[in-house]
Amino acid sequence: MIRVRDADAADAATVRDIHRAAFGQDDEADLVAALLRDETAQPVLSLLAETDEGAVGHILFSAARVAGRRAALLAPLAVRPECQRKGIGGALIAEGLARLRGTGVAAVFVFGDPAYYGRSGFAPAHAHGMAPPHPVEEPWRDAWQAVVFAPYTVSGRVSVARSLDDPVLWQV
Q: Which of 14, 22, 28, 139 is least enclosed, having the fewest CB within 10 Å?
Protein backbone atom coordinates (compact mmCIF):
# COMPACT_ATOMS: atom_id res chain seq x y z
CA MET A 1 0.00 0.00 0.00
CA ILE A 2 1.23 3.50 -0.89
CA ARG A 3 1.00 6.20 1.78
CA VAL A 4 1.63 9.84 0.90
CA ARG A 5 2.55 12.37 3.57
CA ASP A 6 4.09 15.81 3.88
CA ALA A 7 7.87 15.76 3.78
CA ASP A 8 9.63 17.91 6.35
CA ALA A 9 13.17 18.98 7.26
CA ALA A 10 13.81 15.66 9.02
CA ASP A 11 13.30 13.92 5.65
CA ALA A 12 16.00 15.93 3.82
CA ALA A 13 18.56 13.10 3.56
CA THR A 14 15.88 10.60 2.50
CA VAL A 15 14.53 12.96 -0.16
CA ARG A 16 18.06 13.54 -1.47
CA ASP A 17 18.70 9.78 -1.64
CA ILE A 18 15.45 9.19 -3.56
CA HIS A 19 16.32 11.81 -6.20
CA ARG A 20 19.92 10.62 -6.49
CA ALA A 21 18.75 7.02 -6.97
CA ALA A 22 16.04 7.95 -9.48
CA PHE A 23 18.22 10.19 -11.66
CA GLY A 24 21.69 8.71 -11.08
CA GLN A 25 23.13 12.16 -10.34
CA ASP A 26 22.87 15.01 -7.86
CA ASP A 27 21.32 17.70 -10.10
CA GLU A 28 17.68 17.04 -9.17
CA ALA A 29 18.53 16.51 -5.50
CA ASP A 30 20.38 19.83 -5.53
CA LEU A 31 17.37 21.48 -7.21
CA VAL A 32 15.04 20.22 -4.46
CA ALA A 33 17.38 21.58 -1.78
CA ALA A 34 17.61 24.93 -3.59
CA LEU A 35 13.83 25.19 -4.00
CA LEU A 36 13.23 24.43 -0.34
CA ARG A 37 15.56 27.34 0.56
CA ASP A 38 14.26 29.69 -2.18
CA GLU A 39 11.78 32.19 -0.74
CA THR A 40 10.41 32.85 -4.26
CA ALA A 41 9.39 29.17 -4.43
CA GLN A 42 7.19 29.43 -1.35
CA PRO A 43 4.78 28.05 -0.58
CA VAL A 44 6.02 24.63 -1.61
CA LEU A 45 4.20 21.35 -1.34
CA SER A 46 6.71 18.58 -0.65
CA LEU A 47 5.27 15.06 -0.49
CA LEU A 48 6.89 11.73 0.35
CA ALA A 49 5.53 8.33 -0.73
CA GLU A 50 6.07 5.40 1.58
CA THR A 51 5.39 1.69 1.33
CA ASP A 52 6.21 -1.17 3.66
CA GLU A 53 9.73 -0.90 2.17
CA GLY A 54 10.12 2.68 3.46
CA ALA A 55 10.30 6.00 1.61
CA VAL A 56 10.19 5.31 -2.13
CA GLY A 57 9.15 8.53 -3.87
CA HIS A 58 9.11 12.31 -3.60
CA ILE A 59 7.41 15.18 -5.43
CA LEU A 60 7.79 18.93 -5.10
CA PHE A 61 5.38 21.65 -6.20
CA SER A 62 6.71 25.22 -6.00
CA ALA A 63 5.00 28.58 -6.39
CA ALA A 64 4.54 30.06 -9.86
CA ARG A 65 2.39 32.82 -11.38
CA VAL A 66 0.49 33.26 -14.61
CA ALA A 67 -1.55 36.31 -15.61
CA GLY A 68 -1.28 37.63 -12.05
CA ARG A 69 -2.78 34.46 -10.58
CA ARG A 70 -1.24 31.92 -8.25
CA ALA A 71 -0.03 28.72 -9.90
CA ALA A 72 2.32 25.85 -9.08
CA LEU A 73 5.09 24.03 -10.90
CA LEU A 74 5.63 20.29 -10.43
CA ALA A 75 9.39 19.69 -10.40
CA PRO A 76 10.93 17.35 -9.69
CA LEU A 77 9.24 13.98 -9.24
CA ALA A 78 11.38 10.98 -8.29
CA VAL A 79 10.70 7.32 -7.52
CA ARG A 80 13.39 4.81 -6.57
CA PRO A 81 14.22 2.73 -9.68
CA GLU A 82 13.24 -0.60 -8.11
CA CYS A 83 9.82 0.87 -7.22
CA GLN A 84 8.98 2.46 -10.58
CA ARG A 85 5.98 1.29 -12.62
CA LYS A 86 4.02 0.53 -9.46
CA GLY A 87 1.79 3.63 -9.36
CA ILE A 88 3.91 5.58 -6.88
CA GLY A 89 4.55 8.57 -9.14
CA GLY A 90 0.89 8.68 -10.10
CA ALA A 91 -0.14 8.56 -6.45
CA LEU A 92 2.18 11.48 -5.63
CA ILE A 93 0.83 13.53 -8.54
CA ALA A 94 -2.80 12.76 -7.63
CA GLU A 95 -2.28 13.72 -3.99
CA GLY A 96 -0.49 16.93 -4.94
CA LEU A 97 -3.20 17.98 -7.39
CA ALA A 98 -5.93 17.14 -4.87
CA ARG A 99 -4.24 19.29 -2.22
CA LEU A 100 -3.70 22.22 -4.59
CA ARG A 101 -7.21 22.20 -6.05
CA GLY A 102 -9.41 24.69 -4.24
CA THR A 103 -6.51 26.62 -2.69
CA GLY A 104 -6.67 29.50 -5.15
CA VAL A 105 -4.07 27.96 -7.45
CA ALA A 106 -5.30 28.52 -11.01
CA ALA A 107 -3.09 25.92 -12.70
CA VAL A 108 -0.30 23.42 -12.13
CA PHE A 109 2.48 23.16 -14.71
CA VAL A 110 5.05 20.51 -15.54
CA PHE A 111 7.80 20.14 -18.15
CA GLY A 112 7.93 16.41 -18.80
CA ASP A 113 6.83 13.38 -20.80
CA PRO A 114 3.33 14.04 -22.21
CA ALA A 115 2.46 10.33 -22.24
CA TYR A 116 3.28 9.99 -18.54
CA TYR A 117 1.82 13.24 -17.22
CA GLY A 118 -1.17 13.06 -19.55
CA ARG A 119 -2.41 10.09 -17.51
CA SER A 120 -2.78 12.50 -14.58
CA GLY A 121 -4.77 15.07 -16.55
CA PHE A 122 -1.97 17.29 -17.85
CA ALA A 123 -2.37 18.65 -21.39
CA PRO A 124 -0.15 20.88 -23.55
CA ALA A 125 -0.15 24.33 -21.95
CA HIS A 126 0.28 26.15 -25.25
CA ALA A 127 -3.27 25.05 -26.15
CA HIS A 128 -4.40 27.27 -23.25
CA GLY A 129 -2.12 30.13 -24.34
CA MET A 130 0.32 29.58 -21.47
CA ALA A 131 3.99 29.94 -22.33
CA PRO A 132 6.90 28.51 -20.32
CA PRO A 133 9.29 30.89 -18.54
CA HIS A 134 11.89 30.33 -21.27
CA PRO A 135 11.59 29.14 -24.88
CA VAL A 136 11.28 25.40 -25.39
CA GLU A 137 12.55 23.82 -28.61
CA GLU A 138 9.78 22.77 -31.01
CA PRO A 139 10.15 18.98 -30.62
CA TRP A 140 9.58 19.41 -26.86
CA ARG A 141 6.78 21.99 -27.07
CA ASP A 142 4.10 19.53 -25.87
CA ALA A 143 6.25 18.64 -22.84
CA TRP A 144 5.19 22.02 -21.35
CA GLN A 145 1.88 20.97 -19.81
CA ALA A 146 -0.79 22.19 -17.43
CA VAL A 147 -3.78 21.18 -15.39
CA VAL A 148 -6.10 24.19 -15.17
CA PHE A 149 -8.50 24.23 -12.24
CA ALA A 150 -12.02 25.50 -13.00
CA PRO A 151 -13.28 28.21 -12.93
CA TYR A 152 -9.97 29.77 -13.96
CA THR A 153 -9.09 30.75 -17.49
CA VAL A 154 -5.59 32.12 -17.71
CA SER A 155 -3.05 32.75 -20.42
CA GLY A 156 0.37 34.32 -20.70
CA ARG A 157 3.96 33.58 -19.78
CA VAL A 158 4.43 31.63 -16.56
CA SER A 159 6.88 32.96 -14.00
CA VAL A 160 8.64 30.54 -11.68
CA ALA A 161 10.90 30.61 -8.62
CA ARG A 162 14.45 31.92 -9.04
CA SER A 163 15.87 28.41 -8.63
CA LEU A 164 13.94 27.31 -11.74
CA ASP A 165 14.35 30.50 -13.77
CA ASP A 166 17.41 29.34 -15.70
CA PRO A 167 17.09 28.84 -19.49
CA VAL A 168 19.33 25.75 -19.26
CA LEU A 169 16.67 23.96 -17.19
CA TRP A 170 14.17 24.41 -20.04
CA GLN A 171 16.28 22.61 -22.65
CA VAL A 172 16.25 18.90 -23.28
A: 139
